Every structure is written in structure tokens, then in C-alpha cells.
């Protein structure tokens, strides 16, 4: 991919042209149709993704389920699939396209080699990953608070 291609996706604007040229060598743009599965929970995680256009739902499916619980969605400029950056490098949710979607797919093995050349790439990327996980933490904390705050009456039936 060219530096101009990458600049068209807001996520990559934090990188300089030299870094973008190298990142472009390990990134490809791929199109998906509505309801296409990008990856499944448990698949080996070898790439992370940035949405160019469209919408991706990150879901949990239990064995035998036809409908999953949607934990979050990712839209243009947003990153997902970051399990590829951390051991055990296995996706923890299933990514499903909610509409026709274009994704920037970054090959992590190639990226790790780039980080040896330019550690700043790794630093910038890790800041974004930390932000994503902190946002998830805040959401979980808020949801837990709402569950505890809302009184629930549990009644046992006789017998």
C-alpha cells in the first residue's frame, strides 16, 4: 500500500512518511460483504485491522449459538484484532461485518520486524492498544456499577 492509501485512513496519520512507507509493505486493503466473518473466536491471531469504511461487530458466540452477544462495534478509523499483538495470539471474539466493509489488514509478523527498525511505530501502536483496553475497562466498570445499583429481587419458589 502507498503512503497516500494509509493517510486516507485516519488511524495512520500519527506516523511520518518514512514509517508509513514501511507500514505499507505489511498492510493490505481487503473488502468484505455484509455478514462476512473476518475471524472467529479462537482463531490464531496473525493480523490486526483498521476499518477503512463500514462497520464491524465484535461478538461472543457459544457453541451451538446462531446469535452472539455483541460487545462492541468498530467503525472507520478504529482498530480491532489487537490480540495479535499479545500472547497467546488468539482472537477472543468473532468479528462480523455489519455492512459492506473495507479493512486495512496489518501483518503482525512483518510489523514486529518493522518495530526493530523504528521502535516509535511500536510505541505509538501500544498507546492505541492501551487506550482501547482502558476504554473497555471503563465500560465494564460502568456496566457493573449499573448492575449493582439497580436492585434486583430474587424470589425462591417453595418446594
Sequence-ordered SSE layout with sheet pairings:
Blueprint: H1 3-7, H2 17-24, E1 27-32, E2 37-39, E3 47-53, E4 56-60, E5 69-74, E6 79-80, E7 94-97, E8 101-107, H3 108-117, H4 119-149
Antiparallel strand pairs: 1-8, 2-7, 3-6, 3-8, 4-5, 4-7
Helix pairs in contact: 3-4
Find the structural class using helix and strand composition: alpha+beta
CATH superfamily: Jelly Rolls
Order of strands, widest sheet:
1-8-3-6
Rg, Cα atoms, Å = 19 Å
For the biggest sheet, the summary is: 4 strands, antiparallel
Fold and architecture overview:
This protein is globular. 24% of the residues are buried. The termini are far apart. The chain has a four-stranded antiparallel sheet with strand order 1-8-3-6. The chain has four helices and eight strands; from the N terminus they run ααββββββββαα. A hairpin with an 8-residue loop joins β4 and β5 (69-74). The chain has helices spanning 3-7, 17-24, 108-117, 119-149; strands spanning 27-32, 37-39, 47-53, 56-60, 69-74, 79-80, 94-97, 101-107. α3 packs across α4. With 159 residues, it is α+β, with helices and mostly antiparallel strands. It has a single domain (29-149), classed as Jelly Rolls (Sandwich), CATH 2.60.120.
Describe the structure concisely for a colleague.
With 159 residues, the protein is an alpha+beta fold. The chain contains 4 helices and 8 strands, in the order ααββββββββαα.
Which keywords apply here?
159 residues; alpha+beta; Jelly Rolls; four-stranded antiparallel sheet; 4 helices; 25% strand; globular
Amino acid at each position: 500500500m502507498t503512503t497516500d492509501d494509509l493517510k486516507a485512513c485516519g488511524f495512520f496519520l500519527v506516523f511520518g512518511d518514512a514509517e508509513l512507507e514501511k507500514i505499507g509493505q505489511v498492510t493490505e486493503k481487503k473488502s468484505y460483504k455484509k455478514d462476512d466473518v473476518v475471524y472467529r473466536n479462537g482463531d490464531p491471531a496473525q493480523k490486526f485491522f483498521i476499518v477503512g469504511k463500514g462497520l464491524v461487530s465484535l461478538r461472543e458466540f457459544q457453541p451451538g449459538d446462531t446469535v452472539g452477544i455483541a460487545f462492541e462495534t468498530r467503525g472507520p478509523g478504529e482498530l480491532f484484532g489487537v490480540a495479535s499483538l499479545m500472547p497467546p495470539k488468539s482472537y477472543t471474539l468473532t468479528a462480523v461485518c455489519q455492512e459492506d466493509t473495507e479493512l486495512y489488514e496489518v501483518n503482525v509478523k512483518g510489523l514486529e520486524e518493522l518495530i526493530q527498525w523504528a521502535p516509535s511505530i511500536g510505541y505509538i501502536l501500544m498507546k492505541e492498544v492501551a487506550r482501547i483496553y482502558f476504554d473497555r475497562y471503563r465500560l465494564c466498570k460502568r456496566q457493573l456499577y449499573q448492575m449493582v445499583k439497580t436492585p434486583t429481587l430474587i424470589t425462591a419458589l417453595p418446594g
